[in-house]
Amino acid sequence: MCGIVGAVAERNITAILLEGLKRLEYRGYDSAGVAVLDNSGELHRLRRSGKVAELEQAQQQEQLTGRLGIAHTRWATHGAPCERNAHPHFSGDDLAVVHNGIIENHEALRKQLKALGYVFVSDTDTEVIVHLLRHKLDEFGDLTVALKAAAKELHGAYGLAVVSAKQPDRLLAARSGSPLVIGLGMGENFLASDQLALRQVTDRFMYLEEGDIAEIRRDSVQIWDANGQPVARESVQYHEGAEAADKGEYRHFMLKEIHEQPKVVQRTLEGRLGDHQVLVQAFGPEAAELFAKVRNVQIVACGTSYHAGMVARYWLEELAGIPCQVEVASEFRYRKVVVQPDTLFVTISQSGETADSLAALRNAKARTDKEGRYLASLAICNVGISSLVRESDLTLLTQAGPEIGVASTKAFTTQLVGLLLLTLALGQVRGTLAPALEAELIDELRRLPTRLGEALAMDTTVEKISEHFAEKHHTLFLGRGAQYPVAMEGALKLKEISYIHAEAYPAGELKHGPLALVDADMPVVTVAPNNELLEKLKSNLQEVRARGGELIVFADREAGIENGEGTFIVSMPHIHDVLAPILYTLPLQLLSYYVAVLRGTDVDQPRNLAKSVTVE
Ligand code: M6R
Question: Which residues lie with the beta carbon below 6 Å from any ligand 1 atom?
Answer without folding.
Answer: 302-305, 349-351, 354, 357, 406-408, 496, 609, 612-613
